[in-house]
Amino acid sequence: MSMDIDDQPVAIQPGGTAGNGATILCCNCGAPIDGTSATGALCYDCVKLTVDISQGVQREATLHFCKDCDRWLMPPQTWIVALPESRELLALCLKKLRGLNKVRIVDASFVWTEPHSRRLRVKITIQDSVQDGVLLQQSFEVLYLLHTQQCRECAKSYTPAHWQACVQVRQKVLHKRTFLFLEQLILKHGAHKDTLNIKEAKDGIDFFFSARNQAEKFIDFLNSVVPVKVKSSQELISLDTHTMKRTYKFSFSAEIVPVCKDDLVAIPIKLAKQSGNISPLLLCYKIGTAVYLMDPQTLQTADISGPIYWRAPFSALSDTQELIEFIVMDVEYTGQQKGKWKLAEATVARASDLGSNDTTYFTRTHLGGLLQPGDSAMGYLLNGTNYNNPEYEAIEQSSTYSSTMPDVVLVKKHFPRKKKSRRRNWRLKRMDKDEGELLPKKADQDRMDREYEAFLRDVEEDEELRAALALYKQQKEEEEMSMADESDDAEAPQVNMEELLDDFDELRMEDA
What we know:
Blueprint: E1 10-12, E2 23-25, E3 32-34, H1 44-50, E4 60-66, E5 71-74, E6 78-81, H2 87-95, E7 104-111, E8 119-131, E9 134-148, H3 152-157, E10 165-170, H4 177-189, E11 195-201, E12 204-209, H5 212-225, E13 228-240, E14 245-256, E15 264-266, H6 269-274, E16 281-287, E17 290-294, E18 301-305, H7 306-311, E19 316-318, E20 324-338, E21 341-350, E22 361-365, E23 376-381, H8 390-397, E24 408-414, E25 426-427, H9 442-461, H10 463-467, E26 472-473, H11 476-485, H12 504-511
Parallel strand pairs: 4-9, 10-14
Antiparallel strand pairs: 1-9, 2-3, 4-5, 5-6, 7-8, 8-9, 10-12, 11-12, 13-14, 15-16, 15-19, 16-17, 17-18, 20-21, 20-23, 21-22, 23-24, 25-26
């Protein structure tokens, strides 16, 4: 019987002998031995060669692991996290062997194997008593075959219909500007990594999760970036009458305030007085954890938080789809400044009126540091415009505020562009959404493309907005094409290459 030196058993002799020391011959090899010893009629060398204490222990076993989450299956249905060659993985390997509980484990360690071989080798040293007073120690190797098996949680992630919690994000506006901004924040912070499915819906997006706490975590993220009002509900799915165990599906409705950046709003006069006696006709210059408003005639600002807004809600008078192009005829800086804004008095005319009439409008604007005579600016024309809005009617009837209402409210400087869609040296990532039954028609798709192009131009023109997003370098082929088109929009703002990030996912794909 031939075996490895490491696999040869070692007989541990007893501490002493009994009797008068009679000598007999070994029944196997004929060597003289003590007849009163515990080994009986075998010498110690024959005991090592003929007795195998690992005979009832498995030499091969199978381990299951989930390649999606890198967890290991612990019988019966428990999935544990264990690093390669860790104590947790070694304990799992020992528990998988049948017959190991009948012997004493002295030592166990991993034997190196090639990482991609789907094999694990473990060297185990055991001890067992073969006869009274004699212990036998033996070392052997066990081979483990690695098989992949998808865990229950990962299987749910590939089944969009199987969800436990849903977050319905809605905003009652006619455009998707806020959702485009929110999408970039979600991608930058990875808030969508636990979603089972993301589905387009009317006026918003639905996010599906496999657990309630994941949906609540997503709600906390929404509260940290946009002002929302959240309502929750639950539906009983199943009930076990024996154990009284219930299964629910949870739904969260998150409504975003219907006000966007660059919108013209009329807030209630009472709220305006409570906000530092500011003018009730304001311009929204930013959306964050609150609605940030500004009076372009005085540079006074007010922050309306979500709870305050929902106590006295108001809607936008005009949004960016109603902006009109004005030509600056004259501008004079007044000397008042607040942050990046400079108050100025300007005389403007509609671009469509040039050459047909001489109608001009006088206004105060916060764009004094940007505008020069001859520049173009986008703004709202209030003179001669009727708004079906009770808050605006209250301002017109008020003796305090009606006399200070401007004819024109300028919003931003306009940069003429020769091409409808300019190729850029940067890009934004998009979420994978399921459109479901809401497949856009050609007219709707054209509108969505125009809104996305307008959002990209806002990113180029607003440094503060750009700092909150993650911009990535364009692919090499399109980058060369964009460099050739830069001369077409030389006056338009550009994004510096220092602000762009490398997309490591694409770099890994190129290396592969």
